[in-house]
Write a structure and sequence with these properties.
Length: 391
């Protein structure tokens, strides 16, 4: 009998989806380990050193106390003299909630990476009795957009052209001019859910920035907020200010490629790869350059998409998604964002997401993503047991 251990924020709806999937196979419910307790040292992994243990890390999203704790851990990995925003561990724990405010993204990531490395070390001696659904090391890299882009490029996975490391607004303009690019996406290196993403256009006559970022001036300083309302900036001072703040935290800047259209909208596709196989897909129709569904965008018609794309093209694109996922061999699943250009043949991988399997209502072979993941674990465990008996 398998014993699932889920590291998560207990209030997150992802927990319920996994528990339903486990119950589908008449397995005992997962033991939920609260991120807050794990970070604070109130919980440890030693108690789970039992046979047939399956450990899954889920997203630490949407919990401000957990975010503060992660930022506090990041103070050990960052210096106050760096270009990134810095806050001491003590001050981080006293931060007050301000909805949407983008807080210390680089320090948050360094704290997250530090914790993942620590947990990996703690888990290593225990894994003779079980396995990980997703590996801490893989998760850390998937949260690092420049590192992912470099890995994909090195393995000939098609990706948008990168402009390299960009230091500030003026450097961005220089590189765009030197490389002959008028449209780019500026993305926080460690952002998620379109946080800190700017679709930027510039030439000798004009510039504009379409973004999820709301720029607020308060007491002589600029604050950046995540917003579901897409904003369009055209004033040089505002654009330069936003980009300078983002680049100080670290960004991935890529050529802004044109999208194919479906239902009169540009779109991209979220593809969930489970156990090496591209399975669940969602076509995300873009009312703006950002296609994230939480921004008010809609799901496209999958049947219409596949019919227009054609079987041969889809098989090629699925293989690309599977090859991208295969570069993270210690993780059972991931979400891959696929861009298809207007010729409906050329394609590129935009991002890979460690927790990109939250697709409520999307089925593949009659199963949602969580059920398919549990099924894959069961099949893998059965195969391992057969091999061990044979040996």
């Amino acid at each position: 009998m398998l014993n699932f251990i889920l590291i998560a924020n207990p209030e997150n709806r992802r927990v319920g989806f996994l528990q339903e999937a486990i119950a589908h196979f008449n397995l005992p419910p997962a033991t939920v380990v609260d991120y807050a307790d794990l970070i604070a040292g109130k919980q440890t992994f030693e108690q789970f050193n039992t046979p047939n243990t399956i450990i899954r890390f889920d997203s630490p999203e949407k919990n401000f106390d957990v975010d503060k704790a992660i930022i506090a851990e990041g103070s050990k990995e960052i210096f106050s003299t760096s270009s990134h925003q810095y806050i001491s561990a003590e001050a981080a724990t006293k931060l007050e909630f301000d909805k949407g405010l983008i807080l210390y993204p680089r320090q948050w990531y360094l704290g997250w990476r530090y914790l993942l490395q620590k947990w990996e070390t703690q888990l290593s001696p225990l894994l003779t009795n079980g396995e990980l659904m997703n590996h801490p090391q893989d998760i850390a890299v998937m949260f690092d957009k420049p590192a992912c882009h470099e890995r994909f490029s090195h393995h000939n996975i098609p990706v948008p052209r990168s402009l390299g490391k960009i230091h500030n607004y003026e450097h961005l303009r220089e590189q765009m001019q030197m490389q002959g690019i008028e449209r780019v996406f500026v993305k926080l290196s460690h952002g998620s859910a379109a946080s800190g993403v700017v679709a930027y256009r510039a030439n000798s006559r004009f510039e504009s920035a379409i973004t999820t970022v709301e720029r607020v001036r308060e007491n002589g300083q600029t604050l950046l907020y995540n917003s579901r309302k897409i904003r369009h900036y055209t004033h040089h001072e505002e654009i330069a200010d936003i980009i300078n703040i983002l680049t100080a935290e670290g960004v991935q800047v890529e050529e802004w490629l044109p999208k194919a259209h479906l239902q009169e909208c540009g779109f991209d596709v979220r593809v969930v790869v489970i156990n090496g196989e591209a399975q669940h897909i969602v076509v995300r129709l873009g009312k703006s350059p950002m296609t994230n569904l939480h921004l008010g965008n809609e799901r496209g018609n999958t049947e219409e998409f596949l019919a227009k794309l054609g079987v041969e093209n889809w098989e090629i694109m699925k293989r690309t998604c599977e090859q991208a996922a295969a570069l993270f061999p210690n993780s059972l699943y991931c979400g891959v964002d696929l861009l298809i250009l207007p010729d409906w043949k050329t394609h590129a991988i935009l991002e890979i997401n460690a927790f990109g399997d939250l697709l409520p209502g999307i089925l593949w072979n009659g199963m949602d993503t969580y059920t398919s993941e549990v099924k894959a674990i069961l099949e893998r465990t059965t195969e391992t047991q057969k091999t061990q008996r044979f040996l």
